[in-house]
Design goal:
By secondary structure, chain A is of the alpha/beta class. The first copy, chain A, contains 16 helices and 23 strands. A seven-stranded mixed sheet of chain A has the order 15-16-17-14-13-19-20, with helices on both faces. Chain A has a six-stranded mixed sheet with strand order 10-9-8-11-12-22, with helices on both faces. In chain A, helix 13 links the parallel strand 16 and strand 17. In chain A, helix 1 crosses helix 8 and helix 2 packs antiparallel against helix 4. Chain A starts with a strand and ends in a 19-residue tail after the last strand. The relative contact order of chain A is 0.14. At the B-D interface, strand 6, strand 7, helix 9, strand 20 and helix 16 of B face strand 6, strand 7, helix 9, strand 20 and helix 16 of D. Strand 20 of chain B pairs parallel with strand 23 of chain D. Chains A, B, C, D: It holds the Pfam family Aldedh. Chains A, B, C, D: Its EC number is 1.2.1.-. Chains A, B, C, D: Keywords: Oxidoreductase. Chains A, B, C, D: It is an enzyme of class 1 (oxidoreductase).
């Protein structure tokens, strides 16, 4: 039996649109809900609600807006269990991963609560004789976010808390594959004191997206998803005069140097490659081992660790990895493994035959490990978004860096080394936006900003952190002088004080 | 019956010292407690506790320290009623004032919880070829605060939350006249997760202060109080090599221009002059009226408002103003009123004969209003710290500004006008640190900093806000280059990966 | 006789393209030069030159890049006369205006020379235990600028000095109507030490622009011009994945309040309306007078001032206003005046019949002043870019603000008043990016940023100032930890020091 | 024949005081000048001049002040040869060192010229409903600097350019041992457009210093010198209510790890130990070698390099090191070498018998190298300020760090290693303000700030860079609201516009 999943408009759960789409539990294959797919009218209502809420919210002092965020944070902590259950039920990831995701989201809420500090403009006395000038960061109006399935709770929290803390109102379109946690969270925000209409949630697909991209009331769009869609979002939103930041795909390489602490690196790579089933834009699907000795040690270490992994439903605490998100995605990922074998890579660990007893209809794929992956292969070039790790062998760091720089994506990367010089050279020159040194998933903390380079991000400002403040506000610069000193010089003593 | 008020050392209420001093309820004159006065040994124990707690706390990631502050803020809100009761019982101010004070304190805790953002250093790649440089703001070690009776809850919260959020440990010596709220609050901080020893409270007098000023383990001292003591604190602490910020007295002037909204100004001045019985370093004890028409209107307005005021115990919700803090202070303030009459000022409203039925032993003085106060008089020159407002008459804004600039204090001031030019000229040129335009008590919000000029503050960094981060940290600047590229260039391929 | 105006590629004047276009002296109508119009091959060569120069320039320490800017500034000051002569010869504005323009440009060079300070990233120690994180603002690669005829020297200096100071290389396409000053200035930059290829200039039209918008080597495009082109630039550049900032047209309103210093306002409006013949995106073509008394006084004042104006060749020091830029533009502007009359506005001063003796072939139009301009009229709605000022009459400030907010453009605006509240309400709420209070042309100083709202700017980051640093750099965030303490703990004492 | 060296007061060379003191050429022992020692009257005149110049200078827009600095920088570059000749003639350092010193000073002038950017305050709209608040960094008034002999040109340039760029006026008291370059430089500043009285130079000794420390017109004092004097300056200045930053002595340790690039380290240490004859507060007089193998290699490397050094007059381009500054200092340093031998350290290289032919009366001491220096020894504990380098042998990095942290000084330190973890642990935990990683003299660049910890600096704000802006300004915080909307709401339509 599946329940309907509606929209949240002007503070209420609202039905809208005539189409629906099933939401599955990926651990069982069962349909758990029917998400409504917003039509243009529904999205229009959400935008109208946001537009109507804007003037009052924009005039609410930042400190009051910040306090709603503080209170919201408290509620998120109190309801963490319920939220994580929703994430795991619809996305499949293990509960520990859901909690990790939520925790990251909470940190973004926390950062949004610093907005009094973050909104400070720059003030200059005497830019000329008797002339002062200052800047303000004012709210844009209605803003929108379109978010992916892989972090159904966190990515929305990258966006709307800062947007609304800055005085904007917001329309969120979460992924239609796992929409429930975002909706639940939005209702907590209302409970925390966010006025109705400040945050609206519309479920939907391209039809809804296209309204958000073209409606002139929407001033800014944030997107996280795959690169082809990111490009479409960026081109279409910009064509309609909006500011857009669109984060796309990734193929993050981890370089392991000969002097690395291999045990450490292997342990770090396990989580980075197979955590959340590899469905992360900051996952590590490729290891570039410098030297064959290094490669052999890495392969050996990974194989041993993989042997210990337990795959099963995300709700079981003993499981390390859950199912993939949908049947279609499962088949796509398994197809990549087949493809890798065909292309000549060595499949060291083959997870294709995995069966999870009692969950035969779940979308489970065991961890896969390839050796001898090469740049020409599709498993090297394309984003797989599954539990498939490939090892590429090179002879020098320069060779490794050339590979990374030649790849179309530039989201994250990391280097494992003990050597200060190697790390410094790598971090300075690599054409990637987020770089780790012995940190496999260099996701910036909430008080820094998230963003890749090359075809991993379209736009100029990164997600969350300081850049988000700039993205969700427009600069106003005031220049002020006052005319001759009538009142000051006493010419108006007779001025009626009763005025 | 009076209870003992001990110290808080290493997370526990601790007795210390052989001397005690009574704490009074100023609304009744009754003794409510006996505060222990710390001897050198007791202060030494507090410093030792702080010193011992420092290394672990300093190494705790800033985000974790920030979370203790967030949790502490929640507890302060939950226990607001109990805290305000303690403030009013020992200080006498009406409960609404106590709540206002606490609220301001909570905002400082809130700001301290942004410490991850506030501690960011500056990073420069390539200050020279291959050389990077960055700065960090590291904790000092043991820091100390010495706070006054007039804001027993708020002023400590100006200091220690930011100090500990920055990674320092702290010894607080609150006023011995109303120490209970600070102690209560400190215990809430422990409950919020502050490790024992990170915050210690010692009650005491000059004996305790002198240990804090001379012990080499104490790296920084913050003080708020009167100017003579501030000077002593600054000179003594600096002589012992510490960094010191010492905030002293005030005599804040409000200028009323002929074009001001007089009704508005009068209403604002009532609170600024008589709120908390005038026992505020940001109170307005002097109005400078520009033009006699203005002066007459201000006097008339104030007189009418004063007639409506109700003075009585702070616990009664209908009261606008409570008693003075102690019998001695009551006598000092009343003496100033006598003095003003003798000096020739016109006592328009005389509050000296006030009786509060049922509270005959309380330290109640009715609001007093002088006209024709002149610069030579002691009631013009000295800080009275009571419900005594004086009006000075001048003919031009320049005359008003000359008066203000000639006064030894420069804490706060304000101007009432509608005229942009007058306000701009005033704010630019006046020799005062905190300036209001139609704002009678221009106390900066928690995300700006608090501090006067001239003899109202000794030191260079102001209290709370951004300056507090700089005060409670020391700058470390690192310059880094790495030697030739052994590992990177592959010279060490044979390096054992098992290392 | 007219000379050829080529390109500047890889440090040398270079011919390119087969098409040319005449450049006129607008004061005489004579052809002064033939500007070459770059074909795709020529633009490709410029981009290739910039691409080749990038790696070395990017690795040059910021302080060295800053010093080139300092030296360049000195050269600009030394060659000011020659530059201004070129501006006036091709654009027509009076020499004093040319000098003013150049001076503003120099201030942008000055700001670019602060780049060591401006490039500082944020450093956080202990984002987790033993983990540090910091951000860097790294150069993008090849960047491009497309600039308008009206500030042929200044607008290029808004762009490329900061772009190259940040480590980028640049291709500039100045206006083909007055290209010589930008070319001259670029050569001064070479002389100041800018390596060949770091700055390239291509002259041309849409053919050249389209290459810049679509070539994948160009990472960012800055544009200033009219709104339709700005929209095209933004849509096309973004469609090709670039970051784009595109500044468009304007129709700036000046509000005159009844309490304004009218003499002051009139004097300010004269320059704002007729300076540079109104060919400025920050010009004031509309006055909104609040109250008929105000309107009458403004009209009277302006009429009297206009009567004193002298129009003639920009090279004559006694002239206040020169010719329009081209014959076509002259006709367009004169057409608007005809149109205004037809639409029913009152033409108070008619400059259409102006003759400048000895310069009969010049593109001179006398100052025009309309009263009773109304929102429905084309002269209200459209950007005229000529010496045509219209007065709109309203009854309240709210009415004035509603007009401004309803207009498609939101570049600049100003209010003339003495009243603090009116100014504050206006600056807070008006939907315009640059706001003046008694300042008619609120162009931000070089250390703030320039940008309008609504259809006056497409993108999120403004031009020059702090926003330009963010626009011309991409954020890189590094997260770093180091593995177990082998070397520190002495395990490697036997490590060969000869390594 | 020696010339008189007077003061510079109110823009003119001025005689003052009855006492004089000879200035020597340390390479020859000859007297080159007679510096006048200011009496109280002379210092008073300088302060009065600064006080008189303050109001106009403070009101000069920051951009104009910045331009004086830019122009001054150009003049410094043009007159570099003359300035370096003066430095070398009176201090003795080789010309290359003089040029290096001047270059660093010029970078501080450069940074001061960014003052428009650096003075920006923080602006917050809506701190409450309709209330705005912002901060300004206003000038202090008269400020003073007292500078040491070892960098006679650079240290004054750390101070006064930023002080005056911030709008202050200044009284400089350079070292009486080598005063001429500071005086020469001050005159260049006048030539660059600094108004008379904004910068004054008084030569003198304690008599002059004491006036600067006690005169109430002097608001801030910066000092660089030895620790006992720094303590005196800090205590005395603070006792008189001033803000003071007093930088004292140093004993900087360089740690050499077993994995360091020894050749690199040795080469770096040569300059750090013997450059400018060791008369630098950032010199390295102590090497802490981790492991005896390391120590042996360092000793061997240094001995070999020392053998190649040439000592002689600073004016000879072939010389690596010049004389000590005075005969007295020469004897003091030589005494330390004797002392080291007596204390049991091994004198590996003995420079005591050095003779420079033709300069027998010069104060030349050859480079000295000790091995087996131990913490108890005076040559370990005290600042020698001469060409004497000692090697301490330890077995672990922890041992090295414990030594450094136990030392009374904490100015600079560095570590030579290739290992990221060792460097990170060292930079995080070491109790020293300026830390180098493979950088022997980690003097921060001009856009960072300079300052040690422990007894190397008294005060809270460091020298030059961002901290200097805060030190040389006082924060003013304005809070502004405007009364009811009379003008805006049209109530004053009849208001006379002629007002």
């Amino acid at each position: 039996m599946s329940h309907p999943i509606p929209h949240l408009i002007n503070g209420r759960r609202t039905d809208g649109g005539t189409r629906t789409q099933p939401v599955y539990n990926p651990a069982t294959g069962a349909v758990s809900g029917q998400v409504q797919l917003a039509d243009a009218l529904t999205v229009d209502a959400a935008i109208a609600s946001a537009q109507a809420a804007f003037p009052a919210w924009r005039n609410t002092p930042p400190l009051k807006r910040a306090r709603v965020m503080s209170q919201f944070k408290v509620l998120l902590e109190q309801h963490a269990e319920a939220i994580c259950a929703l994430i795991t039920a619809e996305h499949g990831k293990v509960l520990a991963d859901s909690l990790g995701e939520l925790q990251r989201g909470i940190e973004n809420v926390e950062y949004a609560s610093y907005v009094t500090e973050l909104l400070k403009g720059e003030h200059s006395r005497n830019v000329g004789p008797g002339i002062d000038s200052w800047s303000e960061h004012q709210a844009l109006g209605v803003t929108a976010g379109i978010t992916p399935f892989n972090f159904p709770a966190m990515v929305p929290l990258w966006m709307w808390p800062m947007a609304v803390a800055c005085g904007n109102t917001f329309v969120l379109k979460p992924s239609e594959r796992d929409p429930s946690s975002a909706l639940y969270i939005a209702e907590l925000a209302l409970q925390a004191g966010l006025p109705p209409g400040v945050l609206n949630v519309v479920n939907g697909d391209k039809e809804a997206v296209d309204v958000l991209l073209t409606d002139p009331r929407v001033k800014a769009v944030s997107f996280v998803g795959s690169t082809p869609i990111a490009e479409y979002i960026y081109a279409t939103g910009c064509q309609h005069g909006k500011r857009v930041q669109a984060l796309g795909g990734a193929k993050n390489h981890a370089v392991v140097m000969p002097d690395a602490d291999i045990g450490n690196a292997v342990s770090a790579l396990m989580g980075a490659a197979y955590g959340s089933c590899g469905e992360r834009c900051m996952a590590i699907p490729l290891v570039v081992a410098v030297g064959d000795t290094t490669a052999d040690a890495v392969i050996a270490g990974l194989s041993a660790e993989i042997a210990k992994m337990k795959v099963g439903p995300g709700t079981e605490a003993s499981c390390d990895m859950g199912p993939l998100v949908t049947q279609a995605h499962f088949e796509k990922v398994r197809g990549y493994v087949d493809q890798g074998v065909n292309e000549g890579a060595t499949l060291v660990v083959d997870g294709r035959s995995l069966k999870v007893p009692g969950h035969e209809a779940g979308y489970f794929l065991g961890p896969c490990l390839f050796d001898h992956v090469k740049p020409g292969m599709r498993i090297y070039q394309e984003e797989i978004f599954g539990p498939v790790l490939g090892v590429v062998r090179v002879q020098t760091l320069q060779e490794a860096m050339d590979l990374i720089d030649a790849h179309e994506y530039g989201n994250g990367t990391c280097i494992f080394t003990r050597d200060g010089e190697a790390a410094r050279f790598f971090t300075d020159h690599i054409q990637v936006g987020m770089v780790g040194v012995n940190v496999p998933l260099p996701v910036p903390v909430a008080y820094h900003s998230f963003g890749g380079w090359k075809r991993s991000l379209f736009g100029d400002l990164h997600a969350y952190g300081p850049d988000a403040v700039r993205f969700y506000t427009k600069r106003k610069t005031i220049t002020q002088r006052w005319p001759s000193a009538g009142v000051r010089e006493g010419a108006v003593f007779s001025f009626p004080s009763s005025r």
